[in-house]
Specification:
This protein is mostly helical. It has one domain. It has helices spanning 23-33, 35-48, 52-75, 84-100, 102-110, 118-144. The N and C termini lie far apart (74 Å). The relative contact order is 0.20.
Length: 146
Amino acid sequence: MIPDNTTEKSVFEEIPTEKIYSKKAISTATFFGGPLVAGYCIAQNFKTFNDFEKARKTWIITALCTIAIIGISFSLPENFPKIVFPAIYSFIASYIIQTYQEENIQKHNANGGDTFSGWRVTLIAFLSFLILFSFIMAIAVFFYGI
């Protein structure tokens, strides 16, 4: 006898058609690409879960945090450990996902929903890094004449 591994789904349970970003993908990409990655991916997940107000708030918080991080980074001593900021904002992104999206992510996955590929998240991290790097260089040139 062949075991039946299929699970029955309620006919009333909607199968998700949109993809989401996983917690692991967001946290990892945020570490390498900066807080813009977290803001974008978390906001996109909120939109997928039809929570547009939280998506808007996510972008506001992302912008404020990015500005604060850049401002603080210019005032730190040169020997300050460079791993601190990526570790902090990756932890914060994980916490936000755990607190505000984990239940929806689990439900999405349980109902057969899919997640975006690692390559897409890698591209987002790379683009975020380029944007942040360009912004920081523009500030350095403008204020410090570097």
